Amino acid sequence: MSFSQQPILEMRKAAKAFGGVQALAGADLTLYPGEIHALLGENGAGKSTLLKALAGVHKIDSGSIVLNGKNFEQGSTRLARDQGIAVIYQEPSLFPDLTLAENVFVGRQLSKAGFVDWKAMEEEAQKLFAQLGVQLSAGRRARGLSIADQQIVEIAKALSINAQVIIMDEPTAALSSKEVERLFSVARNLKEQNCSVVFVSHRLDEVFALCQRVTVMRDGATVGTDLISNIDENKIIKMMVGREVSELFPKQPAELGDVVLKVENLGQAGQFTGINFEVRKGEIVGLAGLVGSGRSEIVRAIFGIDKYDTGSVFLNGKSLARGSASKAMDAGIAFVPEDRRQQGLLMPYSISTNTAITVLKKLSRAFLIRAKKEKEVAITWGQTLQLKYTSVEDAVEKLSGGNQQKVVLGKWFATNPELLIVDEPTRGIDVGTKSEVHKLLSQKVQQGLAVIMVSSELPEVLGMSDRIIVMREGRQTAILNREDATPEKVIALATGAVSAK
Amino acid sequence: MANFSLPKIQLSWDKGVVLFLVLAIFIGSFSSEYFATASNLSFVIASIAEIAIIATAMTYLIIAGEIDLSVASMMSLSSASIGFAFREGLPFEIAILIGLAVGLAAGLFNGILVTFFGLPSLAVTIATLALYRGLCWVLLENKPVNQLPEFWISLGFRNIPNTFLPWSTIPLVILAAAAWVVLHHTKTGRWVFAIGINPEAAKFSGVPVNRVKLGLFAYSGLMSGVAGVIYTLRFASASPDGGVGYELSVIAAVLFGGVAIAGGVGTMWGVLAAVVSLGVMRSGLQLVGFSANALLIVSGGLLLISVILPKVTEFVRIRNSRASTPKIKQKNEEKKYE
Amino acid sequence: MKKLSKLIRSRELPVFFALALVYFGTGFANPQFFTVTVVNDIFLGVAIVAVLAVAQTFVLVMRHIDLSVGSVIGFTAFMIGDLSSQGYPLIVVLSAALLIGAAVGAVNGYLVAYLRLPSLVVTLATMYVVRGIFNEVAKGQTIVESDVPEELNWLGLNRFFGVPYLFIIGIILMLVAGFVMYRVRAARDLYAIGSNAAAAELVGIPVNRRVFFAFLATGAISGLAGAVMLARFNSASTNSGLGLELVVIAACVVGGVTIAGGAGTVYGAVIGAILLQEILLAIGALGIPQFWQLAVNGILIIAAIGLDRYLSTRVKSTSIMGNK
Question: Which of A366, B194, C8, C126 qualifies as a FRET site for A344, CA 20 to 30 Å off?
Answer without folding.
Answer: A366
